[in-house]
Amino acid sequence: MQYIPNILFAILLVVGIGYFTRNVKKLIRNIKLGKPLDRSDNSNLRWKNMINIALGQSKMVRRPIAGILHIIVYVGFIIINIEVLEIVVDGLFGTHRILSFLGGFYSFLIGSFEILALLVIVSVTIFWIRRNVVKLKRFWNKEMKGWPKEDGNLILYIETVLMVLFLTMNASDVHFQEMHAGNPISRFIADILPSNPDTLHIIERVTWWLHIAGILFFLNYLYFSKHLHILLAFPNTYYANLEPKGKFKNNETVKKEVEMMMDPSADPFAAPAEPTEEEGEPEKFGASDATDLSWVSLMNAYTCTECGRCTSVCPANQTGKELSPRAIMMKTRDRMEEIGKNIDKNGSFQDDGKQLLNDYITPEELWACTSCNACVEECPVNIDPLSIIMEMRQYLVMEQSAAPQELNLMMTNVENNGAPWQYNQMDRLNWKDED
Known about the structure:
With 435 residues, this protein is mainly α. The protein has 2 domains: 4-32 and 63-238; 252-256 and 284-422, Fumarate Reductase Iron-sulfur Protein, Chain B, domain 2 (Orthogonal Bundle). 60% of the residues lie in helices and 0% in strands. It has helices at residues 4-32, 43-55, 64-80, 83-93, 104-132, 147-171, 174-178, 186-190, 197-221, 229-238, 252-261, 295-303, 309-313, 315-318, 325-346, 356-359, 363-368, 374-378, 385-398, 405-417. It is elongated and about 95 Å long. The N and C termini lie far apart (99 Å).
């Protein structure tokens, strides 16, 4: 009978970690559905970016209040969960505070954890007030209704409950409190708890079990939440685009045609060469569905924290246009989840008659973008909404000839007149003679 709690704990641990591993595998599979993209260059700079941005939170503190509070929650939550190692050992082997043999160092660690836990509770409370009382505009855009809004608040509640459970667990541990060390916060909670040792033992055991169960629940909740960025922020910043902002990649197919057109030795009347078996059918231009995007863009979508900083600096959004860079990332992730569920159900993807373009993201949103890169610059984890926008724009123009009339007129003028304006080529430089 004495081993039943250990067996139950082992089952809880295996089920929790097993379900998490299963979801991580699905996540990796979904991201790999994207098109190949080589981001293996300049590893030194990539490591530097990851350390500074993901670990060091360098872009978060550009907005000091939110940045400092986020660092407290981030550091506190990660460091406090070091104690999970002790809980796992205690749970599996029936020990109690097995690391207490460290003496003064153990007291210092737990004391630090308690202070951090209190700071996390304070920070999370401020976040809740900013989101629900002050109602910062970026948390109340139309894409933040329903589940995204509930998700943001639910995370704050879970973090608060976990910290309260941790402090109550310490406060109800009679032997720990009798040490009079490592309990700078929990000793005040201990004063308001019942004095009966048996009752305290029950409280300590209940909070201990709820604390570890809550951590495993939160671990598995990550996959369904915007808090997935806890895991993906590191690879996302490592594989971020290192090219100068505003530089767009050449389309190799178009590039070859232009090079041939400018080759004086090329026969302009020659029939195009038939594609070889190795070349296969030419790929479509741009992206109409999520799987047409690169794997980096799909990872970007899953990494999105839904903080709304990108949308808050977007000039198109600020002037009332339909575009919201945050919504672009959220819709891409939603479509990938739909594709993933389709594969889970059928073994392979079966055409569902939907696509990212039109069913999730409208052309109106895409053409509202000024391609200014403000959203890319502002994102605290180096997400690039612009790359998705430009891929779908390319599809609209080159596959569907569906550019807005103003752009079609401009492109016609460039083709016929060598300039965006509707002037004869002979008159292109007349402006220089004007006073």
